[in-house]
Amino acid sequence: MSSVRIECVAEGCRIGESPVWDEKEGALLYVDITGRKVCRWSPVTRQAQAIAVDAPVSSVALRKSGDYVITLGTRFAALKWKEELVTTITQVDKDKANTRFNDGKVDPAGRYFAGTMAEEIRPAVLERHQGSLYTLFPDLSVVKHFDQVDISNGLDWSLDHRTFFYIDSLSYSVDAFDYDLQTGKIGNRRSIYKLEKEESIPDGMCIDTEGKLWVACYDGGRVIRLDPETDNRTGGERSSTISICRLNPFLQNGLEMADTMSSSIKIESVVKEKNRMGECPVWEERENALVYVDINSQKVCRWSPVTNEVQSVSVDARVGSVALRQCGGYVIALGTRFAFLDWDTQAITNILELEQDKPNNRFNDGKVDPKGRFFAGTMAEETAPGVRARRQGALYTLFPDHSVIKQLDQLDISNGLDWSLDHRTFFHIDSLSYAVHAFSYDVHTGKIGTHAFKFGDK
């Protein structure tokens, strides 16, 4: 397993996307979609230059003759960097005033594939089936491959150039097509991997030197590796430098570059079996094991580094998080209940049922504070991909005496939480707020107070 060093090399993007290495210029090229900028970062000067454009710019590609071609609004356009000159090549979706291009990439023969989507009302919420997938050919002609797309996203080609891989995000599927490299035509569409809704939304995609696909999961904090031959997720490593654009409120959606050559961080897949939605890893010193939950499979799991095996206990509802008890065993956030779990007997003892008036809610992320109180929050389940009842969740605290208080309500998706090193600040994420919130914290009483500030913005 190679080591990986992650370094933030460019900051200030609102939505950084489409990283492309420009060998001729020795620079990393990328776009800031909503910032309406095409950017170029130099590893020599460690500075980024940018050219402002007149519409959301979603992807960029290199031209053999020099300079770039971009997807700008609903236009394919040429960009001359030194002159800062943009020239429209052609416009698509002329009958749709509310669409724009999204992800794009060049095929092995130099054709530029890019797809469109409706503008979002809010992230991942938009008018459905308004997008299409297009190809810009070297002679500047354009072909539409298909329409009825929700969010045209990740795309790439197999190493033998005979298969085209594609993601329409709200289908929650990675699809494959037969590909004719000579003509640029695609056919025989089929799904090779279907994500569960709770695995988050598939977004960008690339292929590695082993022919495995890497898929970024929007709003999920993960990148999954897929084997298109077996339709399975797989562990693995990168053996070359990769570029990653990420949404990060602390870095203002910065662009990162991962360098595998000089690092002290080792990333290893230790659980080989497939989890539908693995969450909440907790190291248990007493058992010398990694405890975690598989939310959608309704299991609490424990992995041993000695045997390299996973044991699990099945439960009767989705389990959002797990924490250690001082006396042994665990406390879990199960459905809308706090409950104890005895690992040896597999017995579950309910502590308290919450939100009985909200049958479509469940617990999500949870964590123990420095004094042993279990904080966990709830959320509404999705009724359709990307659709859920808003502001149905709350944040609760289970105290050692088994009493429970509600700390916050009107939440969408209660998620990440932690405390400052001096225990005076509590940090919390309500995912659809697109921000990390900070509150004053009284470690003696376990109560959160004044909302101090937040990082990030939509």
What number of structural domains do the residues give?
2
The CATH C-level name of the largest domain is Mainly Beta
* CATH architecture group name of the largest domain: 6 Propeller
Number of helices: 0
How far the N terminus sits from the C terminus, by CA atoms, comes to 36 Å
Task: Give the DSSP E fraction (strand runs of 2 or more residues).
Answer: over 45%
Write a structural description.
With 458 residues, the chain is mainly beta. It folds into 2 domains: 5-259, 6 Propeller (Neuraminidase); 278-455, Neuraminidase (6 Propeller), CATH 2.120.10. Strands 2-3-4-5 form a 4-stranded antiparallel sheet, with no helix packed on it. Strand 21 (213-218) and strand 22 form a beta hairpin. It starts with a strand and ends with a strand.
Brief description of this entry?
With 458 residues, the chain is an all-beta fold. It contains no helices and 43 strands.
Give the tags:
single chain, 43 strands, 4-stranded antiparallel sheet, Neuraminidase, elongated, 458 residues
Task: Present the secondary structure layout.
Elements (H helix, E strand, L loop, with lengths): L4 E6 L5 E7 L4 E6 L4 E6 L4 E6 L4 E6 L5 E5 L2 E6 L4 E7 L7 E8 L5 E7 L1 E3 L2 E2 L4 E6 L5 E8 L2 E6 L5 E6 L4 E8 L4 E10 L6 E7 L5 E6 L3 E6 L4 E2 L8 E4 L9 E5 L18 E7 L4 E6 L4 E6 L4 E6 L4 E6 L5 E5 L2 E6 L4 E7 L7 E8 L5 E7 L1 E3 L2 E2 L4 E6 L5 E8 L2 E6 L5 E6 L4 E8 L4 E9 L3
Antiparallel strand pairs: 1-25, 2-3, 3-4, 4-5, 6-7, 7-8, 8-9, 10-11, 11-14, 12-13, 14-15, 16-17, 17-18, 18-19, 20-21, 21-22, 22-23, 24-25, 26-27, 27-28, 28-29, 30-31, 31-32, 32-33, 34-35, 35-38, 36-37, 38-39, 40-41, 41-42, 42-43
